[in-house]
Design brief:
This is P-II family nitrogen regulator. Belongs to the P(II) protein family. Helices cover 23% and strands 37% of the residues. It has two helices and six strands. A hairpin with a 2-residue loop joins β3 and β4. The protein starts with a strand and ends in a 17-residue tail after the last strand. The longest helix has 15 residues.
Length: 112
């Protein structure tokens, strides 16, 4: 099993969520996050004063899935999140040794 973690722009979440639901993703964890990458934030002007916004808002998606579906899910996220601009986000994939559904005690892919 694999854990797919994606950091995306908040305005792309609804589109990505709809695409993943259409693909049949049955569950995900969504967290509001802040951070920066190579773009290092940006400068804004408020009431004539410049200030640097160093932490930008992001959405963190976490999806546990089978190895067979992981690459398809990653491709869906990339297609929906890509604007071609810096700050589109990152995706990383980790190996999951075991998943246990607390309510039933099911283990492995049956717990997904």
């Amino acid at each position: 099993m694999k854990l797919i973690t994606a950091l995306i722009q908040p305005e792309k979440f609804q589109e990505i969520h709809a695409e993943l639901e259409a693909f049949g993703v049955s569950g995900m964890t969504v967290t509001e996050a802040s951070g920066y990458g190579k773009q290092r934030g940006h400068v804004e002007v408020y009431r004539g004063q410049e200030f640097t916004v160093s932490l930008l808002p992001k959405v963190r998606l976490e999806i546990v899935t089978t190895e067979q579906r992981a690459q398809d899910i990653v491709e869906i996220i990339i297609a929906a999140a890509n604007t071609g601009s810096p700050g589109d986000g990152k995706i990383w994939i980790s190996t999951v040794d075991e998943v246990i559904r607390i309510r039933t005690g099911e283990r492995g892919s049956a717990a997904l």
